[in-house]
Amino acid sequence: MIKTVKIKDLLIGGGNRITVQSMTNTKTADIDATCKQIRGLIDAGCDIIRLAVSNDEEVNACREYLRRFDAPLVADIQFDYKLAIKCSDIGFAKVRINPGNIGGEDKVHELVAACKSNRTPIRIGVNGGSLEKGAVGRGAEALAESALRHVALLEKFGFDDIVISAKSSDVRVMIQANRILSDRCGYPLHLGVTESGDAEYGTIKSAIGIGALLADGIGDTIRVSLTGDPVSEVIAAKKILRAVGLDKNYCEIISCPTCSRCGYDLPEIVRQVREETKDIDFPLKIAIMGCVVNGPGEAKDADLGVAGGGDKAVLFTKGKVYKTIPMCDILPELRRMIAEHTKR
Ligand code: SF4
User: Fold this and answer.
1) CA distance linking residue 242 with residue 233, whole number of Å
2) Are residues 104 and 170 in the same domain?
């Protein structure tokens, strides 16, 4: 059983829903720009927001963010354990440290004491590119071993309010490291492929790495790291959760790739239906298929759907055909059926 860790009012691990995280990339001391970005992330559905904190000016700016926003905010600290202590003291919901960069045991001990007294969980964030001195190798075992060594250090000081992340830009290394961690400890795992690139390629890398683990039941919270606007990270993360079946409250559109048997402008119908159903927040599956050869059968678990056939189209529900319509009525008939489901 995975331990439950409380991040402000959110529960991570222990079978709770998988939460989505992102990180601001404005200057942390720039209050206007950072508030705008935090608001944008919250509006996009981001559960936990991390900010890099590198000096006292940024700590002071963070007091303002903690005052203005209810969402759990996490301080990301590199090197300076005293900053981590200050962030715990001012009320951050969690601090993320890379113990390999923090220094000796004494410093970690002091930080743990502050976090214990403030009830601030710590995420041990280990990255392939910044393993501590003395770590052997850079592969999955080295990543997992490094994380576990730091877990043992925190436990030695009587602290177990821990979340772990083992990230790499190498998808296979990240997957394997998290499988090892999942086998060897019961702390919540924060999943991510680090430095995965821009939205186009990084989303694919993240979907493979994060998705493979989630599909195996590994992982409690995720971040898709993408170059660019962090809102795109949240959008990608939500799509990954949907694709692995961990978020069902949306309208899923199943559509065929089309071939020469398709007799209507299927891509345009898909585009319009997707646009018109994007705000649906309950499970609804719509199939839009090119022809009746495979259409209704391949989409038999869809709530409703359409398949072309000669100069006509058929509508079906749960794989059963119930009406034949002219091609030109496909979109209005789909709209009508969607509206009926939405009313229920
Ligand atoms: S459903 Fe029909 S049109 Fe679409 S790819 Fe399959 S055979 Fe082709």
Assistant:
1) 14
2) yes
